[in-house]
Amino acid sequence: MDLVKILGERYMKPELPQMNVGDTVRVTVRVKEGARERSQVFEGTIIAKKHGGINETITVRRVSYNVGCEKVFPIHSPTIVSVETVRRGRVRRAKLYYLRDRVGKRAKVRERI
Question: What is the pTM of this model?
Answer without folding.
Answer: 0.91
